[in-house]
Amino acid sequence: MEASNLPSELFYIPLLYRPWYLEECPSSIATTYSSADFRQPAIVTVDVPSGCTDKHTGTSASAPLAAGIIALALEANPELTWRDMQHLVLRTANWKPLENNPGWSRNGVGRMVSNKFGYGLMDGGALVNMAKTWKTVPEQHICTYEYRLASPNPRPIVGRFQLNFTLDVNGCESGTPVLYLEHVQVHATVRYLKRGDLKLTLFSPAGTRSVLLPPRPQDYNANGFHKWPFLSVQQWGEDPRGTWLLMVESVTTNPAASVSY
């Protein structure tokens, strides 16, 4: 078929912006294509009981794309571990098609990262090519540090506030320090009248800022968080040694709202 006879919608080039259902999170490594609303193109795929559809949407469309790319990488190199795959996805992700979205920043080793899209769009060709020659990473090493809150503990606070907690990281209880970060977890216990008014932001020694918990206006839970693990991959590749800062703040408009941590 000649190009002039093709339907005009086949030449529609969508703007690559966040979908309305996206949740921001610093644990996201990368993203794939999805859809926004019924007026915009969706994912074309096979359908049941037969034929194809051009209306496949949401995370139900994007997750299989990621799984298919990962399957191709495993076919190219069956020795890949789950951490190898995360390295490959992260190192080959392309942020440029999504650069018009606000919120991109450069982490401590120079990689562009976003709370919306991780390190960018998954690139199947680049990922498979890198997988062919990839050498399995060494065994994962984990260091744990505990922040001890001075008395009073728990500490009650009312109304709007901002508190900073710092932790110096220079070694490891096992004697072997982590020199190259992959995953960072913060386990936090906080009680608050309206959990959605809390915001947690982590700053690494290299200056990388990760919003571990953004405000959520519709979250009215009053139980808070109990030893909740907040995960970030935005410091990937950084040297963790130095001073870390966790900023806990409230965006409440209720002066009587109370918190304890």
From TrEMBL:
Keywords: Calcium, Cleavage on pair of basic residues, Disulfide bond, Glycoprotein, Hydrolase, Protease, Serine protease, Signal, Zymogen. The keyword Zinc does not apply. The keyword Hydrolase applies. One of its GO terms (molecular function) is serine-type endopeptidase activity. It comes from the Eukaryota. Residues 136-261 form the P/Homo B domain. Transmembrane segments: none annotated. PROSITE patterns: P_HOMO_B, SUBTILASE, SUBTILASE_SER. GO terms for cellular component: Golgi membrane; trans-Golgi network. One of its GO terms (biological process) is protein processing. Belongs to the peptidase S8 family. Furin subfamily. This is P/Homo B domain-containing protein. The lineage of its organism: Eukaryota, Metazoa, Ecdysozoa, Nematoda, Chromadorea.
